[in-house]
Amino acid sequence: MAIAPLRNLTSHPEQQFLVDDFTDRLVIGLFRSCRGFSFTWVPGERRWISDLSPPNPSELKYVVSGSVQQGSSHSMLRANIRISETATADYLWACREEFRPEDLVSIQTEVTAQISRVLHMLVVREASRRASMTSDTELGVTECLARANAALKGEFRADLSAEAQRWFLSGLAHDPCNVEALVGVALTCQHFASSPWWGDARAAAAASDFGRETVTIALEFEPGHAAAKCIQGMLLSAAGRLKEAASAFRQALAMDQGLANAHAFGGYNAALLGEAWKTAQAIERAMRLDPTDRRRSLFFFFGGFAELLLGRAHEAIVLLQKSLERNPTHGSAQLFLVAALSLTGQDCKAASMADSFRQQYLESPTNAFEQFWLSRSLSPVYRAQVYPLFESIRKLPTG
After folding, report:
1. What is the average pLDDT across 205-227?
2. pTM score, two decimals?
3. Which CATH superfamily groups domain 2-112?
4. Does domain 289-399 bear CATH number 1.10.8?
5. Where in the chain is the domain with CATH 1.25.40?
């Protein structure tokens, strides 16, 4: 992705500082919301931000460019932003936004959000095209969705989530506006975003952004889609936007009180907000609504995690073991069972499980898991509860 500094077409040289500020804020905003993209300046252009990669014309697919000019009145300015395809120079998207100079921050935020949405939808289009080329071209949308959902009924594993995502994307190749396929893509993105042991940190961040934009599109098509609203909450929670996530879970339950995931993830999110005492009741409701082993593995983990935060390590061990009985590869349950065993004086078992965990996820940085749970919440209550858990893991001898 190449970025061209916005041009000052206001006829007022003194506005150059504002135009440059707009460009720089736009770049920073795109860094934060499009973490799966690599950004560079258009060849020959230079700006003060030094983090952008050096341009490689052969790898550039899209260009963001535009200008700022005088608006409809003397006190207004107009931002003209567009995205074009590098190979053809065709415009793929354009917008015009009028604003007062003092509203630069809010208009830049809005424009960044629009650009992020378009870029991720371009990725969806390209990914769905590739997926359709590698799948059975005779299958229609219904068959693609059926195969995707069949993959999701298996264990919670990276390969099955990836397979499901391919089928959801194949469905989108047939019908780009299919809400169920969009929701399915977002759900599989949530799987990768919330599982740091499945890949590197950048891949997880990219999945988070991709899923967030995809589910937003789905909700624009169908605002009352309870499962989509719940998945939006799950993605927000994984990104550390916990209060927004809590609101999304409440909205999902207002649409459908029988949505087990909204109860369960809402309870887990409450624990991250420092309210772990709310989790058990939410998990009990979820279990009554969905008895499947795949979901119960996750629900038992949420319950065990909350018990551990509350200092009830023995109760946590029971729940975490139940989680692993249903899905032995569940990394979250493994990790916190290590902490629970250590806290109850079972150091040999804890050390053995910790070594097994490290061997299982050799490619993941040693601090990736700790950072995932520490970075998600600023709640002093939660941090005071979770930090000692990782301290107990760090103290274990390595084999």
Report:
1. 95
2. 0.86
3. TolB, N-terminal domain (3.40.50.10070)
4. no
5. 289-399
Tell me, what amino acid is at 142? T
Report the pLDDT value the prediction gives residue 45, as an integer from 0 to 100: 62
Cβ-contact 193, 235 below 8 angstroms:
yes
375: DSSP letter: T
Q: Please say whether the beta carbons of 154 and 326 come within 8 A.
A: no
Output 245 or 1, whichever has higher pLDDT: 245
User: Long-range contacts: 320-323, Cβ < 8 Å, 24+?
Assistant: 322/296, 323/296, 323/297, 323/298
Write the burial class of residue 289 (CB in 10 Å: 0-12 exposed, 13-18 middle, 19+ buried): middle
Domain with CATH 3.40.50.10070 in the chain: 2-112
Q: What are the φ/ψ torsions at residue 7 (nearest 5 degrees)?
A: -95, 145
CA–CA distance, 289 with 283 (Å, rounded to integer) = 10
User: What would the two tokens of residue 50 be?
Assistant: 């030094």
Which residues have C-beta within 8 Å of that of residue 183, sequence separation ≥ 6?
A: 215, 218, 225, 227, 228, 231
CA–CA separation, 196 and 93 (whole Å): 34
